[in-house]
User: Fold this.
Amino acid sequence: MALGLFRVCLVVVTAIINHPLLFPRENATVPENEEEIIRKMQAHQEKLQLEQLRLEEEVARLAAEKEALEQVAEEGQQQNESRTAWDLWSTLCMILFLVIEVWRQDHQDAPSPECPGGDEDELPGLEGAPLRGLTLPNKGTLDHFYERCIRGATADAARTREFVEGFVDDLLEALRSLCNRDTDMEVEDFIGVDSMYENWQVDRPLLCDLFVPFMPPEPYHFHAELCCSRHPVPLDRQGYGQIKVVRADEDPLGCICDKTKLGEDMLCLLHGKKSLARPGCEVETLLCARGAPYLDAMQVMKWFQTALTRAWHRIAHKYEFDLAFGQLDSPGSLKIRFRSGKFMPFNLIPVIQCDDSDLYFVSHLPREPSGDAPASSTDWLLSFAVYERQFLRMTSKALPEGACHLSCLQIASFLLSKQSRLTGPSGLSNYHLKTALLHLLVSRRPADWEAGQLDARLHELLRFLEKSLLEKKLHHFFIGNRKVPNTMGLPEAVRRAEPLNLFRPFVLQRSLYRKTVDSFYEMLKNAPVLISEYSLHIPSDHASLPPKAVVL
Assistant:
């Protein structure tokens, strides 16, 4: 037992002696992997430092992005505020512009002040020194000139119309007899238009203009497409339209017998078996443009000239005169040559009616300019000749007996014709003169067109033309004119269209404009001399000449 206690005491003493806290020794109790642990701790510390740097950079980036977003939001708010202010300013400017434009149009369309000798307001822009100070003959000279040189020269107009109409009736009847009703065009009765049928023809020889409407055979029909019904309208296509050749089975509003199975015991009452089985007509290949279903004006001209030639050869044996084409660029310009050497020209113009209105498409009408030449042979000129004749007739019923409106137009046309023979043709035509007169007719009271106001109204007509020439603007009377009475029955697309400027070529062609202006003032300068020479001697009682009665 004593030995056991000794051993225990020995172990305790040995443990106390070897305890590191009592007798520390360097490197005595340091683990062998201390350096590895230190390296790991240093690497971990470096990672922590890198992570701290990354986090600092991330925080800085987020702060920069936040600042940028705040700046963008501030700029966007400023832009919205400026845009709102700009939109408000643009709206105010647009409203102001519209008010000025409406005021300008109303001011231009207002009744004109009275020229010397009247008591009404005149058209704006005509005040000042008009016509470059040139004076026109007085009322007595104009009255005598009209009686001697215009009324007497046009006295045989009725006989000329009667002769031409009788011959044209026979010619068109022969043309119809040569046509196949199933495959050829259907030619309708002619319509008299222009100066000979409005009673203001002045030029000699007297010239009749006759519209000849035609229609395609079944199952075809013409579908009119007005350029003025499109928005916007190209400037070079204002006043034109196109004519589409459509089959009945291609028309979405037409018959559906060829699109639906009717059954063996059902029959279409419009077409029947015969028409459905009939081979296709050659209208598309004969008169349409290549590769398009639109009517070609050049093809129609060739067809019409060929048809007229065949019809004349059929009836030539009944007449003691010859018939020939007058102008190569006009399909129906014809000339009757008598054996005595005299001749009588007239125009047969192939036209196509626009729907159910009195508006017609014409292939070519050089005496009714509407601006530039058509851009394509499928563009057809819109003619308002029938509406113009109807408007003059309707207006004449409201004017005093013997009104001077047509006398003014005849005298102005006479002066223009004589000036054209002296200096050559210019950009001013009889159609422009008539358009100016139509504008004045709706701006003046009926009482202002009494026979005694001939000199004042002629002076006003010439001043209106001068103003239009200087402004290079003369609007078509019917297209886009709100003053045309609704009783005329114009198509709605024409009434809503933008006004057509007949003087637009003057904006593009400076040489033509300069020549026209010079010719116009030269005409005014020569007017007193021409009227005096053609009037010869003025009677002493010229003031008591009877009033001129004009009946349409």
About this structure: The radius of gyration is 46 Å.
